[in-house]
């Protein structure tokens, strides 16, 4: 913007009266020696002027003097007289030699006046263009400085400083002189030095051609600033554009006309140059014909002194200092005229002479102008700017037209080629890339939509799995019936799939194959699959977070509603309790008095809450007449807040008789005082004087108003109820959180036990297999059927062999000895080395390279931290990449790639759960069919469902839920099951067969489609063959049958038949499965017979949430909890309170349970001063009676040390498990047993016989350390061999010697290690 001075400025002389300088212009290819000229001239400066406030609007004077690189251009430079012939050049040389001879130095001398303002100093100096220079905001400051310097120069000495000119070098050295600086400027740039300047202007191939004028100017160093800014930077004030362009002979015509006058019209530059005599060849050829080299425009203009700086700097360095707009256009016009006239043989000297004369003439004209004559309309700026913008738009349009024409030609060629070949679709660009806009062309006439008025495209990406789209096509103007639309290809695309249709039901789908375009340079199909899985994972996490937030909000809403309801209930209860207390207190106030003159008195008589009073007591003829101490135990308001007054009385001699007194403080809110006298403080008193059980009461005379008291009392009771309720709720909440945490820990511990249960054969590193990770499978064939085989092949899949990518190809495993660097020391193994030996095994074939190291860690991953007995050298290794969409990893091993002998875990295969995946295992519909269920009491909301008929009998169906699972009870109306018992009748087989048939009929008629039918023991064994023979072909075809043997002692015939029909058979422990393997019912079916350890209900048997024990406990307070339970048990059964070992026996009294060993153990314990508690009953009356006589004998001989409870009592069983030190289970055989599991759950030490499930779950503290460690467990009890009394004595002697001296916490921790806590 223009500078607006606030005060008039006196402008004196801008330059000395006499100045000498030389200019050497160079144009095109003409040599320096040919075109250069030298002259020294004198320039008369303009007279002094008085500037007004509008001075800054005035146009600065033009000059051809270049500024020095190091100096900042200030003020106005003198306008030289430009020579026009070689004769003037000779004169310049002569004058320069004359001056140089007098100076005696090549460096110029600075004026003695010391001024450093713009006094022109002549010197021989090559001008260097700074390509990085730009016009900046310093322009305004520079203009202000110019005016101030001019004023200072006018006030100073007008004498011209001596100018020293050096000898001009010869023509042979002219080129070298242009590259180096020969003369200094003086005072670090404040003065203005004159340079010896080469001005080279060339128009070569890249300057004029198909490029727009904007591109040409840009290459010449002229930036993209708007015209106003560019002109302002070179000193254009508020002159009208009309005057500016008129300076170069351009009127008010449009910019197109103006440039047309300068031989630049609406035609292309090529046409314009053709008119100048340049042919139709390329610009390079045209300029070459004119002797102009093929340098780039930037280089050509650089030779002319125009660099990459701002417009002002570029023109200034080219010899144009702060020229007006007219000068700029004039200069451009000169260059154009030069090119045209050069071809017409006009010499450079002639052109320079003409330009010089025009400059001088213009300078004279300007000197005569009054400052007021310069006022020009501001609208001229906009006109000039619009003219330049119109020119730019015109040239851009020309370029766009050319590009459109080329694109049009390309489309026409493609359309013709594809139509001629019968291809109905093509795309532009022909190579499709991601993140690109493409245009699809469709020939309607070649398609099934030839007669349809509308054409639409419907499609998606990557096999119709990503980002569907529908767009309407538009008719093109191409030859033929071509339609098109544009699509934006997403980053994730590797293929575009689409069809065409009419918007309704008419389709063109490439003969049912659809159309597709490959997308190059993006992700491949495998990467896209990973992307989909990742997106699915994010979606699942998002949905889970949203669901969690909804549940949180719902829970918060429920909590608020419950709090509101509870608060209302508290208010109601507070009101009721207040009324009760009001009636009670009114009754006491009637009985109270201010004193009883012969028994007690209070001084003073009038007192209120908070006062200190003295209470007197006469013990004469009272219960405390002989007491050595007398205490008062008192409260207030009918003892509403318990004891609030406790003081010791002292003997008082102020009254006659045996009076005692004490000072007490009356409670603040007391309406009535309540007290008794005693012979000691609370807890130690024996004798009381309580006024014949009515206590003593005294009214508070100056108590608070009664109505106010009851309002406050009701509020106090309400707050108390709220605090108590919230404390209970907080305790319940904390307990629930702790229970959930312990369950999670137990689940995690149990899962690790499962994963390590076959560590001697196979396990993974890490133990927990996570989706998306790379794991190592370690396999020890020495313990399998592949022992000794030279090769081991690994076959793997996921999701129970149902993964959509199918099984992985067989892969040969690498023995550990081939990878000796794999040690059980936690070394990190380079994955590249492993890949060289065995590769990475993943879906889709091929294994992706793993860039991270695989840390095998400590390969001995048992829970005890003990070394694994199996050497790592026995293992083979395999790296497997686990996909994101899996929930189970499945694998087997074989001896050869094509099969041979398989290790498939006896037909069960190896399965390892996968955590963290996006896929969840679909739930299985399992139906258990059993004639008994315990505890039925856990069934909630039992109600009638429906009835159905079978075999001529109507059967009612009752429905309920146990722990969220539906349970159905069948009740035949014929009374078959209403006999008062389950077992023990002669028709048991008939009744159980009817039940099994009715259960299958119910499933069929109700439309159930179970995956598993699970029948139990001989009583429901008929389900196996009834299903296979009658129902598998009539609607229940999806089911498989599992048969579980809980006890082989009963119903062998049914068990034998069920074993033949069942798909799988199980029993309740591994040891028991081996013990019965020789049984004829089992031995022929060992291939499908498996032992699985039984379990207990952790919710029922939970010492932390057990309502039948006095103190719930966890590992943190197990000592306190078990001690309290033992004391409660002793108290309930009338046992002596003792710390001696207490043995509990909870069992059915049958021969199987080792009743003879039980009797022996009872006698042995009593002989060692222990205590015994037995809970149980016998189904055989003879055994029941025998134990009743035995109990009578023991109770009389060992009263206080033994108690038999020959009945069923579940609450008592909980107390025995918690209070006993040891639990005895001496079974002769035991498929599994639950007693020892519950005992360990409650921290009691099991003493068992080594059989069946007892052996699998109890590890002797002395003899089973290695066996326990092999399973990741710790020793947790005592066991014995044999079925004679000596074995029992061996265990009892050790448990008395060791067990009683051990802390319960230790045994409780051992029970946790088994995973049942």
Automatic annotation (TrEMBL):
Leading EC class: transferase
Coiled coil (residue ranges): 711-741
Pathway(s) this gene product operates in, as recorded in its UniProt entry: Glycan biosynthesis; starch biosynthesis
This protein's record includes keyword Protein biosynthesis: no
Keywords recorded for this protein, A-Z: Amyloplast, Chloroplast, Coiled coil, Glycosyltransferase, Plastid, Starch biosynthesis, Transferase, Transit peptide
E.C. code: 2.4.1.21
Molecular-function GO terms, alphabetical: alpha-1,4-glucan glucosyltransferase (ADP-glucose donor) activity; starch binding
GO cellular component, one term: amyloplast
Name of the protein in its database record: starch synthase
Family matches, as SUPFAM superfamilies: UDP-Glycosyltransferase/glycogen phosphorylase
Top-level taxonomic group: Eukaryota
Primary subcellular site in the record, as a coarse category: plastid
Family: Belongs to the glycosyltransferase 1 family. Bacterial/plant glycogen synthase subfamily.
Species of the source: Musa troglodytarum (fe'i banana)
Swiss-Prot/TrEMBL catalytic activity: [(1->4)-alpha-D-glucosyl](n) + ADP-alpha-D-glucose = [(1->4)-alpha-D-glucosyl](n+1) + ADP + H(+)
């Amino acid at each position: 913007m223009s500078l607006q001075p606030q005060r008039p400025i006196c402008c004196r002389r801008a330059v000395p009266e006499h100045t000498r300088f030389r200019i050497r212009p160079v144009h095109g290819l003409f040599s320096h020696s040919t075109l250069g000229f030298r002259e020294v001239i004198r320039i008369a400066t303009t007279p002094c002027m008085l500037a007004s406030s509008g001075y800054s609007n005035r146009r600065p004077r033009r000059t051809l003097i270049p500024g020095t690189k190091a100096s900042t251009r200030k003020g106005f430079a003198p306008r030289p007289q430009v020579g026009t012939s070689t004769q003037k050049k000779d004169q310049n040389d002569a004058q320069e030699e004359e001056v140089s001879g007098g100076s005696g130095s090549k460096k110029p001398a600075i004026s003695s006046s010391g001024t450093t303002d713009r006094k022109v100093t002549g010197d021989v100096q090559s001008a260097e263009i700074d390509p990085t220079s730009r016009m900046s905001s310093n322009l305004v400051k520079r203009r202000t400085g110019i005016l101030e310097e001019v004023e200072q120069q006018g006030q100073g000495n007008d004498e011209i400083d001596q100018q020293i000119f050096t000898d001009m070098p010869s023509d042979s050295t002219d080129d070298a002189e242009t590259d180096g600086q020969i003369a200094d400027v003086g005072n670090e740039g404040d003065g203005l030095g004159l340079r010896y300047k080469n001005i080279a202007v060339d128009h070569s191939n890249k300057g004029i051609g198909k490029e727009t004028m904007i591109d040409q100017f840009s290459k010449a160093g002229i930036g993209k600033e708007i015209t106003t800014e560019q002109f302002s930077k070179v000193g254009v004030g508020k002159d009208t554009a009309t005057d500016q362009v008129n300076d170069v002979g351009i009127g008010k015509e449009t910019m197109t006309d103006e440039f047309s006058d300068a031989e630049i019209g609406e035609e292309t530059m090529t046409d314009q140059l053709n008119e100048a005599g340049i042919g139709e060849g390329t610009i390079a050829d045209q300029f070459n014909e004119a002797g102009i080299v093929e340098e780039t425009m930037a280089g050509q203009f650089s030779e002319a002194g125009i660099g990459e700086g701002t417009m002002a700097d570029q023109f200034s360095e080219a010899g144009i200092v702060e020229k007006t707009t007219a000068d700029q256009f004039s200069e451009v016009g000169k260059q154009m005229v030069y090119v045209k006239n050069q071809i017409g043989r006009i010499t450079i000297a002639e052109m320079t002479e003409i330009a010089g004369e025009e400059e001088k003439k213009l300078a004279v004209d300007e000197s005569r102008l009054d400052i007021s004559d310069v006022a020009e309309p501001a609208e001229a700026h906009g006109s000039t700017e619009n003219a330049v913008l119109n020119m730019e738009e015109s040239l851009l349009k020309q370029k766009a037209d050319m590009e459109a024409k080329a694109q049009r030609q390309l489309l026409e060629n493609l359309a013709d080629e594809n139509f001629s070949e019968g291809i109905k679709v093509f795309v532009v660009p022909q190579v499709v890339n991601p993140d690109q806009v493409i245009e699809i062309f469709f020939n309607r006439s070649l398609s099934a939509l030839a007669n349809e008025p509308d054409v639409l495209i419907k499609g998606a990406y990557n096999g119709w799995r990503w980002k569907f789209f529908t767009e309407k096509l538009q008719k093109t103007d191409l030859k033929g019936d071509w339609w098109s639309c544009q699509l934006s290809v997403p980053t994730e695309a590797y293929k575009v799939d689409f069809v065409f249709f009419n918007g309704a039901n008419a389709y063109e789908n490439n003969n049912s194959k659809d159309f597709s375009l490959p997308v190059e340079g993006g992700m491949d199909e495998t990467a896209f699959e990973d992307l989909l899985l990742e997106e699915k994972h994010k979606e699942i996490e998002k949905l889970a977070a949203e669901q969690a937030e909804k549940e949180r909000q719902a829970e918060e809403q429920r909590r608020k509603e419950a709090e509101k309801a509870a608060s209302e209930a508290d208010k109601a209860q507070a009101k009721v309790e207040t009324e009760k207390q009001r009636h009670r207190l009114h009754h006491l106030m009637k009985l109270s008095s201010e004193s009883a003159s012969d028994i007690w008195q209070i001084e003073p008589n009038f007192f209120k809450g908070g006062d200190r009073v003295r209470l007197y007591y006469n013990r004469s003829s009272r219960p405390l007449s002989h007491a050595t101490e007398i205490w008062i135990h008192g409260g207030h308001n009918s003892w509403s807040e318990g004891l609030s007054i406790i003081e010791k009385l002292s003997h008082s001699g102020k009254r006659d008789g045996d009076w005692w007194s004490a000072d007490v403080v009356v409670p603040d809110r007391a309406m009535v005082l309540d007290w008794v006298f005693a012979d000691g403080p609370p807890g130690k008193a024996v004798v009381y004087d309580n006024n014949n059980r009515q206590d003593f009461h005294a009214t508070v005379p100056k108590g608070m108003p009664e109505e106010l008291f009851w309002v406050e009392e009701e509020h106090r009771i309400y707050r108390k109820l709220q605090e108590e309720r919230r404390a209970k709720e907080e305790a319940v909440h904390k307990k629930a959180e702790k229970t959930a945490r312990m369950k999670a820990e137990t689940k995690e511990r149990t899962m690790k036990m499962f994963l390590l249960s076959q560590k001697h054969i196979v396990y993974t590193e890490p133990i927990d297999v996570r989706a998306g990770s790379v794991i190592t499978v370690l396999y020890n064939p020495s313990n399998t059927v592949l022992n000794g085989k030279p090769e081991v092949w690994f076959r793997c899949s996921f999701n129970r062999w149902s993964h959509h990518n199918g099984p992985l190809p067989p892969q040969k495993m690498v023995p550990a000895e081939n990878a000796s660097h794999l040690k059980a020391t936690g070394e990190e193994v380079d994955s590249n080395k492993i890949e060289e030996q065995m590769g990475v095994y993943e879906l889709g074939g091929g294994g992706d390279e793993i860039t991270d190291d695989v840390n095998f860690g400590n390969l001995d991953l048992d829970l005890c931290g003990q070394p694994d007995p199996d050497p790592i050298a026995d293992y083979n290794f395999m790296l497997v990449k686990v996909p994101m969409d899996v929930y189970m990893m499945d694998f087997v091993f074989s001896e050869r790639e094509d099969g041979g002998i398989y290790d498939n875990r006896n037909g069960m295969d190896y399965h390892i759960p996968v955590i963290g995946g996006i896929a969840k295992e679909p739930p299985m519909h399992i139906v258990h069919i059993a004639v008994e269920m315990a505890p039925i009491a856990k069934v909630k909301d039992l109600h009638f469902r429906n009835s159905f008929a079978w075999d001529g009998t109507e059967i009612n169906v009752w429905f309920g839920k146990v722990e969220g699972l539906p349970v159905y009870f069948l009740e035949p109306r014929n009374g078959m099951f209403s006999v008062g018992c389950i077992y023990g009748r002669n028709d048991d087989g008939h009744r159980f067969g009817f039940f099994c048939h009715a259960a299958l009929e119910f499933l069929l008629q109700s439309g159930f489609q179970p995956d598993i039918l699970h029948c139990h023991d001989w009583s429901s064994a008929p389900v196996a063959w009834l299903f296979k023979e009658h129902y598998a072909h009539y609607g229940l075809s999806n089911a498989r049958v599992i048969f579980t043997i809980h006890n082989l002692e009963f119903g062998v015939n049914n068990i034998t038949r069920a074993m033949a029909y069942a798909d799988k058979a199980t029993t309740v422990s591994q040891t028991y499965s081996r013990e019965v393997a020789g049984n004829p019912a089992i031995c022929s079916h060992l291939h499908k017979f498996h032992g699985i350890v039984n379990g207990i209900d952790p919710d029922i048997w939970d010492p932390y949430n057990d309502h039948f024990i006095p103190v719930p406990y966890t590992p943190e307070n197990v000592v306190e909890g078990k001690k309290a339970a033992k004391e409660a048990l002793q108290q309930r059964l009338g046992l002596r309170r003792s710390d001696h070992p207490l043995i509990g026996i909870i069992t059915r009294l049958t021969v199987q349970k080792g009743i003879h060993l039980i009797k022996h153990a009872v006698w042995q314990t009593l002989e060692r001063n222990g205590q015994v508690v037995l809970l149980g009953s016998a189904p055989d009356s003879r055994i029941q009676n025998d134990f009743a006589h035995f109990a009578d004998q023991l109770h009389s001989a060992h009263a206080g040390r033994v108690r038999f409870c020959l009945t069923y009592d579940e609450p008592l069983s909980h107390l025995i498990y918690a209070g006993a030190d040891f639990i005895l289970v001496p079974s002769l055989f035991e498929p599994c047993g639950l007693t020892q599991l519950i005992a360990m759950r409650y921290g009691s030490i099991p003493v068992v016989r080594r059989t069946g499930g007892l052996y699998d779950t109890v590890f002797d503290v002395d003899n089973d350390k290695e066996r326990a460690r092999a399973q990741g467990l710790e020793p947790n009890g005592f066991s014995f061999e044999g079925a004679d009394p000596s074995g029992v004595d061996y265990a009892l002697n050790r448990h008395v010697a060791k067990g009683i001296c051990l802390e319960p916490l230790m045994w409780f921790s051992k029970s946790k290690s088994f995973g049942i806590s």
